[in-house]
Structure formats: C-alpha cells, structure tokens
Amino acid sequence: MLHLADNGQSAVLVKELVFILFFSLSALAIVILSFIGSSTTILAADEEEDFEENSLIKICCTWGIDIADGILTYSIVGDVDAEKKEAVHNAIQDWDDNIESIKFEEVSSTQENKNRPDIQIRFVNDGEQFKDEGPETAGNTKTRLDKSGFIDYNTIIIAEGGLGKTFNIKTIETIAKHEIGHALGLGHANFGSNLMTTKIESAAETISLCELEAVRQANSWILMNENEHDSSPSFPEITTVICES
Question: Which CATH number covers residue 14?
C-alpha cells in the first residue's frame, strides 16, 4: 500500500510518484520513482496482486497548505486543439461540480511563467512518446511531494492515441478525469467499472461517490474539518476507501 505519512522524516528526500493508465493488458499498475541525490530506485506494484478482498480505491497523497485557499490552479500547455482542450475542461468541471471547498482555476501561460500551477497538463501523440512506461500507456500523472510529504505539484500527460489507434474525444475526457483524480490524491482502484481503474477499456466515465469520498479522506484536514480557521495539513488516518459493489 502507498502510505506517505512518513515521507517528511527526511529533509533531503523528494519523491515523485508516477501513476499510469493503460489501454492494453499490462500487469504494471503503479511506478514509484524515489530520488535521493543522484540515485534512482524504481519499484513496481503489480495490479494482479490481491491487496484486499474488497473493492476499494487507494489513497495516495495529501495536499498541504497550497490548498488552504480552496483553489487548485492548472494549465494546459503546448499546441492543443480546441476539442481536446474542451475535453480537459469538461473533465475538470466534473470534479469541480462534485467537490465542495475546492475550485479549479485555469492560469494563462503568462501567469504560469510567474507561478508554477498546481497541475500542468500536456498531450503527446501516442504511448510511444512516454519515456519509460511503454506504448500501451494512455496517460500518466507525476506527483511531486514536498519535504514534508505533501503534494507540491502534478504533471499530467495524456496520449492522443496509441498502438495504431486514435482516441475519441470522450475517451480523452475520461483519461483526463482519471488523471485529475490522481492529482487530487487518489491512487488506483482494484476493480473495473470505476474511474480509477488501471485500464481505460474498463474505466467508468463518471465520478462515483466512492471517488468523492476518497478525495475527502485524502484531504480530510481541510475537506472534513468543520473549523476551517483552525486546521493545518495532516495525513489521513486511512489508506484505502472501500466501495460498495
């Protein structure tokens, strides 16, 4: 399980988590890259591993003080056509409409040069352009944690297609929605017919109550705190949310 509550114990440790969404039968579900000085360690978690008997979603990470104002900024970079931008906007709007206390705010390239957005989104032509994950990759999210182990920022990459096929706009919207889930602190689900599953073919197109509850639990210090004026970042007490069948 990914439990990051102890990440802040080392001032020299910076972690970058990479979540990969596949569109073919690959066993690799999650890759964690840990950078300590110049050394790199790569650990892989096999999605076939039965980590629980229940249907559940893992909690990966927690936002820190950057989310205290209730705003997450994002930008879409590169030469992206209007249809794909709209797909990303629709995906973000779906999350925006369903999560109280958090609003997404798009920043321009000019603003981005001054302040790095919380979430940066870009496209690649196909899975072949992912450096390490392989041609069957539909999208990935790299989550950089700060020295205390809280989310610092996210970089999302979405493939326009792969293995000889081009994704339609609805599929791109689903990929974007899945990756935004990671940016909000979610890991993967261990079952299909869910937005956070590892395979795009079996991914749900809508955000379920289980995903919303997982986001609330991941960031419970602010989203479940009745006294908004008396809260400081803290890690959740649980690492998974069980979903009703």
Answer: 3.40.390.10
Domain contains 149: yes
H or E stretch covering 71: strand 71-76
For Cα atoms 137, 157, 101, give the angle at the middle one, nearest 5 degrees.
Answer: 120
Structure tokens at 154: 């996210």
Domain boundaries, position 171 = 7-242
Number of domains the chain is built from: 1
Q: Which residue has the tokens 């690492």?
A: 239
Asked if 45 and 213 touch (Cβ cutoff 8 Å), the reply is no
- Digit-coded pLDDT (tens) for 102-115: 999 999 866 656 68
- Contact between 49 and 30 (Cβ < 8 Å): no
Do β-strands 137-145 and 151-159 pair in parallel, antiparallel, or remain unpaired? antiparallel
Whether pTM exceeds 0.85: no
Asked, for residue 1, whether it belongs to a domain, the answer is: no
Q: Which of 161, 113, 115 is nearest to 138 (CA)?
A: 161
